[in-house]
Write a structure and sequence with these properties.
Elements (H helix, E strand, L loop, with lengths): L8 H11 L3 H23 L2 H17 L11 H26 L6 H23 L2 H12 L4 H8 L3 H16 L18
Length: about 190
């Protein structure tokens, strides 16, 4: 297992390139993570245009504040996901509050429930996308194809015990979606969610 103080080489190199102001680095980062950022933003906001705006804002903040990411704190992917979630939740809260001020439907409590639900759903999406492929495959078979652990084991070509282990680990990871302020939450950018 990798030590926390030894970040992945790509993440460390990308942070250094961004800090030097390499525009090509921003393009590479965008190519690699734009679909993740946009998908998470869309999951929170439920609106394509708003997700586009948050995606643009995330990469603009990374470009303007490249030192905000510390590779020793975790993977760049996790940091970007946390930043995206924070900005999307802020936008959801801001637009919801403005709608309430204009006399829109609902209450402040309804808005906070919506914000919490959207945040947990986005975190669960991220967890599923980032979990190891064997765990994700087991969960997808069990959930989407309604397979039990024996059928999952047969489909994956593993033992029953291995299928149970993969399902258990995958579900344990998903259970963390309810934790507030996921791992690698970026301090100092975007304010508190």
């Amino acid at each position: 297992m990798r030590k926390k103080d030894a970040p992945p080489r790509w993440d460390r190199g990308m942070q250094q390139r961004l800090a030097r102001g390499e525009a090509a680095a921003l393009g590479e980062l965008y190519d690699r993570f734009a679909s993740l950022v946009h998908g998470l933003a869309h999951r929170v906001l439920g609106d394509e245009h708003a997700a586009d705006t948050v995606t643009r804002d995330v990469f603009a903040l990374v470009w303007q504040h490249p030192d905000a990411y510390d590779p020793r704190q975790g993977p760049l992917r996790s940091w970007l996901a946390a930043l995206t979630n924070r900005l999307a939740v802020e936008r959801l809260r801001t637009t919801g509050t403005a709608a309430l001020a204009r006399g829109g439907p609902g209450t402040a409590e309804d808005l906070e429930r919506k914000v919490r639900h959207a945040s947990v759903a986005a975190r669960a999406d991220y967890i599923v996308q980032s979990m190891p492929a064997p765990l994700r495959a087991a969960l997808e078979l069990a959930y989407f194809q309604r397979r039990d652990y024996r059928q999952t084991a047969a489909d994956l070509g593993v033992t029953d015990e291995e299928a149970r282990r993969r399902l258990r680990l995958g579900l344990q990871l998903l259970a963390t979606a309810h934790d507030a302020g996921g791992p690698g939450a970026p301090p100092g950018i975007g304010g508190a969610a």
